[in-house]
Design brief:
Layout: H1 3-7, E1 11-16, E2 19-24, E3 29-34, E4 41-42, E5 52-57, E6 62-66, E7 73-75, E8 78-79, E9 83-85, E10 91-94, E11 97-102, H2 116-133, E12 137-143, H3 149-162, E13 168-171, E14 176-182, H4 189-199, E15 207-213, H5 220-233, E16 239-241, H6 242-245, E17 247-251, E18 254-258, H7 261-274, E19 280-283, H8 290-299, E20 308-312, H9 318-326, E21 327-328, E22 340-341, H10 343-346, E23 351-355, H11 362-374, E24 376-378, E25 385-387, E26 391-396, H12 400-405, H13 411-417, E27 420-423, H14 431-448, E28 455-456, H15 458-466, H16 472-486, E29 491-492, H17 536-554, H18 559-566, H19 570-580
Helix pairs in contact: 3-4, 7-8, 14-16, 17-18
Length: 595
Amino acid sequence: MPTSSLSDSPHLVVFRQASSSVVQLPSSGEVELGTEEGACVRWQQEDGGVVRAVLRITDESVSLRLAQGSIRILVNGVPAAGVEYLSSGDVITLGAITIGFRGGPRRLPARALLEPGHLRQRLLEETERFLRYESPFAVMVLALEGQGPAEHALAAEAIGRAVRRVDVVGFNGASELVVIFPETTESVEVPARRVIQAVLPAAPGVKAGLVLCPSDACNADALLGGARLAARSAPAGGLARLGDAARLIVVGALEARVVDPITAGLFDLIRQLAASDLPVLVHGETGAGKEVVAHALHAWSPRAEHRLVAMNCAAIPENLLESELFGYERGAFSGAVGAKPGLLETASGGTLFLDEVGDLSAPAQAKLLRVLETRRATRLGGTRDRAVDVRLVAATNRNLEQEAVANRFRMDLYFRLSAATVVVPPLRDRPLDMSLLAHAFLDSACRKLDKQPKSLSSSAMRRLALHNWPGNVRELKNLMDYLAASAPGSEIVAANLPERIAAQAAPWMLAERRRGDEPAVSGSGGAAPPRQFRNIYEEIEELERTRIREALEEVQGVRVKAAQLIGMPLRTMLTKIKQFGLEEAGGTPARKAKR
């Protein structure tokens, strides 16, 4: 039989004593081997023993199954039991003969589309791989609204043919398909558009949205939600990125871009409330953006032509707070050499913003309640009420309802202040906004300093994504201002970030402390200083770097063999080679995979 034909199909090489022969196998079906009559490969055992095994050949695999009563069979020198799946090159010992198996080109199995639960699990796994090993990836959502089940099935089949084997495809609901592109960055638009072209014949109205980890988000839910948002903003048959779905919010001289649906809904609510004169109570953590809400309520209201006056109730001493808020007459107290209008009068016609309103004293609370009820205010030391036309916006990071139940805040004032309530979510609950805000704040800070624009590297975004942001948006803005002023070069890397960023969530990312940075310990008296240990994550990283380099050198840079040598998955090794800068290790130039 010609050699070329053998290489194109599975076959057996049978060794009998001093001779050998080749047995062609069918492309599918079952073939019997053994001492029984009718076996495709048959022989007689000198001891009269019975050997019977069946080869089962399918498009996906070739397996060897032993029949009951058969004598022992070895596969690659190991006793076989039950069913053994064969690989090309396996050697089978069946009593008196030896058979080598050669598998021809096998057809890859049809791609299995993941159900929503399994798809989410794979997305979580890819996210963890990025956070651990800095392996970027992309997520694409294809919205198939208006199409029937038949079109959905055709679209799914087309996607399976258009993507790489390493890519992940699954359903996320009846009319939404998701593709995960592992280890793919900005070049992902090429395979993404190839997928769209494949789907168009089955679903002409398909809309696709694309997000990248880490530049858009590093959270599984955020990535999936972001890709869905981007798909909604795409034209029929087209592709959109997350930035295309962002909304521009203009509040006076302030411009902000938001993409998180909850944040966008929050500003829609603020625009509705701005048209009324209702008092608004804004809840939120420190630095979350309560003052921006107050500015928006004023800037979008009919009072925008008048002043917005702000007072931080926690920053003013209690004995001065009432005089600042209500004003005073000459001689009202020692040092009051002249009359002074309070902020309520100053803000008349406009808006008064009381930040940290929970810190108001009890007398000030009673007077403020009267102002809300009568729209009139009396200065300290005065006897005449003055009309005040002011819209009141209050903010707090406390639970005022609980404070009122505990008699630390007037219940009646709480109900008057909370005629309308706005809750500002913390930054850690807005991962899509975090990335947008970080880039916007960094660009703004660079412009103010008259510096060239800077970008955030993958390693920096990884740290930012893991940080809890106790100071919220204010903390992020201050950090970007610091990085714009202090970081060298045009790209900000993880080493430029303060150690407190993600210190609790990801201690393995922190730079190793220099010995000179260790605190000095006095040697006179007292107990001996504690033994110093290296960070365990640093030691693990050093061990991985050493073993990968040694393995690459051992096999002259052949990465598949190096991965097998140390028992590491090939994808993980490729990621770590890039992470550790070992592309040239072993004397073989690095080959970049086409994306």
